[in-house]
Design a protein that fits this description.
Layout lengths: L11 H23 L8 H67 L4 H7 L3 H72 L3 H20 L11 H11 L18 H11 L8 H4 L4 E3 L10 E4 L5 E7 L2 E4 L8 E4 L5 E6 L1
Antiparallel strand pairs: 1-6, 2-3, 2-6, 3-4, 4-5
Length: about 350
């Protein structure tokens, strides 16, 4: 006999879950359909981000330059101390040789030390006759011993100083490696961003930058806002001879430069030594806060942390090594946040 059992109805809970899930699926589908696809950043956005990365890379570059300069200074100081220690050790050896000469001779001949012989003498008169000689020898020995002790203390201090500087050097080398890695990372990030552009967009950016460099390098006769000193004029003339030379981080010429490498090289050609980094160059002379008081060849410091420097070129222009991907060129002083000038 056929069964007429009624089919089992789904529970209210199950119906609710299914209904909710279906509703959620509909909402998600609608949202997915209506959501705009992720927009590719515009050429302008990419350029702004790349410029920011280049600026951060230059900040790291100046710190890298500072660490490198410190490393070179420490190496020279350590070398000097080590030379002093070597000479001091020779002097100490000579002092020891002089005081030990008699003892060495006695050791070789097997004789007894003269002072011991005197104390063992059974003849008081003989002892008294030789007492003055003993006092004289003792005085010489005491003086020699004092010199030896003084030289030992000097050597100990110099060795301790060398040890401290070697530790500082190791720390500086570590910092140097970190800053180099930071610069390379920033530049790599910039290249990745540029690679998100189409070939046509990259070509347009390159062409715009080439036009900027070309027009800037062709502006040779800028006039002279005030009379520059002979040294500043000579430094500026040297800088002009490097127009069109590429920017390379950490470079100080003559075939490539970063910003402070360019200015320090230019002044070196004028026979003037200035510090290697932009921050140190900011303290290398008299500060000039009014742009109208600047003279050709004055250093010009930019940005609040002073991470960029150039040479004043007159007529509101600066001659500098701008950033990665550019060359030494003229540029309006107003294109960057001016802080002050420095007259060497």
């Amino acid at each position: 006999m056929a069964s007429h059992r009624r089919p089992k109805q789904p529970s209210r809970t199950r119906v609710t879950v299914l209904t909710t899930a279906a509703a959620a699926a509909v909402v998600l589908s609608a949202n997915a359909a209506n959501a705009a696809p992720s927009e590719k950043p515009s050429k302008g956005d990419v350029k702004a981000k790349v410029d920011k990365l280049y600026e951060e890379a230059e900040q790291a570059t100046e710190k890298y330059n500072g660490a490198q300069e410190k490393q070179e200074k420490l190496q020279k100081e350590i070398s000097t101390i080590q030379d002093n220690v070597a000479r001091g050790q020779e002097e100490l050896n000579e002092l020891r040789d002089s005081i030990g000469l008699a003892a060495a001779a006695q050791y070789r001949t097997g004789s007894i030390d003269s002072s011991v012989q005197l104390f063992l003498s059974a003849d008081p008169d003989d002892y008294l006759d030789k007492a003055s000689t003993l006092d004289q020898l003792s005085g010489q020995q005491v003086e020699a011993l004092k010199k030896i002790q003084e030289k030992q203390r000097e050597l100990a201090q110099e060795r301790a100083e060398a040890s401290d500087k070697l530790k500082d050097l190791a720390s500086t080398r570590t910092e140097l490696g970190k800053k180099k890695q930071e610069v390379q990372t920033k530049l790599a990030d910039a290249r990745k961003l540029l690679n998100t552009l189409t070939a046509a967009e990259q070509a347009a950016l390159n062409a715009a930058d080439a036009r900027a460099s070309r027009s800037a390098t062709e502006r040779v006769d800028l006039g002279n806002d005030g009379s520059a000193s002979n040294r500043a004029a000579a430094a500026f003339a040297a800088g002009q001879s490097k127009i069109g030379t590429p920017y390379v981080y950490g470079a100080s010429g003559p075939s490539s430069f970063d910003c402070s490498g360019f200015t320090s090289w230019a002044y070196a050609q004028a026979g003037v030594t200035i510090p290697r980094t932009s921050q140190a160059q900011a303290n290398a002379g008299t500060r000039i806060y009014n742009q109208s008081d600047l003279k050709v060849g004055d250093l010009v410091i930019f940005y609040g942390d002073m991470h960029h420097v150039g040479l004043y070129a007159g007529n509101g222009q600066v001659l500098h090594a701008p950033r990665t991907g550019t060359v030494v060129r003229y540029e309006s002083i107003g294109n960057m946040p001016f802080q002050f000038g420095v007259r060497i």
